[in-house]
Amino acid sequence: MTAGGLLTFGETMAVFSTDSGRLRHASTVNVGIAGSESSVAIGVRRLGVGASWAGRVGADEPGSLVLARIRDEGVDVSAARTDQYAATGLMLKDFRAADSMRVAYYRHGSAGSRLCAEDLCEDRIRAAGVLHLSGITPALSESAADAVHAAIDVAQEADVPVSFDVNYRHALWPPEDAQDVLRELVTRADIVFAGEAEARLLGLEGSAEDLAGALAALGPEEVLVKLGPRGAVAELGGLRYDVPVYPVRAVDPEGAGDAFAAGYLADRLAGAPPDRRVRTAAACGAFAVSVAGDADALPDRDELNELAGPITIVR
């Protein structure tokens, strides 16, 4: 078990969604939260490993909702800050058809986008087992991007492993603006998660195996390329792994990547070998798509036994 647990920070929004149909026709809505980094923290905590989340929320009801929901999961939010001058970001989700979900974001100038390097607690970074970051945060604002690099500086000085999920969001920035920023962050990370299209966004080419090798050549020791329903390919310490596929009925694809990262990082922090880490990552991703909501379907350890499967090492 790695001492210190997971530390992560970024924007978490309040979410209002319908079970079906358009929001305009709904008389009631579901209320929740969504944020890549907080979802990873919640997923790690459900798997029995300590986790902390930091960020900014507004001095409003959505902000109180965000903090309460994350705290209720056992995640430490004591480093989070309340911004008196900006509102908490919002996400609205509804359905145009039974299998077509629509998402709208209201986050411009949000409290989360005002995150800055001064918000970071350096002592917490130095004490962490893993610092986890995503490509969403540097897209929010210049100050948020500065905070990401400042956190990496502190982590590297303290020999704390840095985990980075590329997590490209077209709604936040165009690919030509994102490419160099995300590629630099990959070079500064020890652990990297990327989708196939995200790896190509960075200027890499070839098969999934080629992409994993190319990402590893940029510097990270551990690389996992997610392939959606085709599983994933990982290159960990010079060994190649085919990550298994667990067939489930997909209800909501949102949050699958965060669940995948949470499963891998939780097992890494718990001292599990690489083959178990990738198997847990795949199982968590499968659970996440089976239920609507970003963090609602994140499993605990007992539930992972329901999805067992082999792992193949390709040398």
From TrEMBL:
Keyword field: ATP-binding, Kinase, Nucleotide-binding, Transferase
Top-level taxon: Bacteria
- InterPro entries associated with the record: Carboh/pur_kinase_PfkB_CS (IPR002173), PfkB_Carbo_kinase (IPR050306), PfkB_dom (IPR011611), Ribokinase-like (IPR029056)
Give the PANTHER family listed for this entry. HEXOKINASE FAMILY MEMBER, PSEUDOURIDINE KINASE-RELATED
In its UniProt entry, what is this protein called?
2-dehydro-3-deoxygluconokinase
**Which source organism does the UniProt entry give?**
Prauserella shujinwangii
Protein family according to the UniProt entry: Belongs to the carbohydrate kinase PfkB family.
* Record CDD domains: KdgK (cd01166)
Keyword Acetylation applies: no
Pfam families the record matches: PfkB
Decide whether keyword Protease is in the record: no
What's a Gene Ontology MF term here? ATP binding
Q: Tell me where in this chain the Carbohydrate kinase PfkB domain is found.
A: 7-300
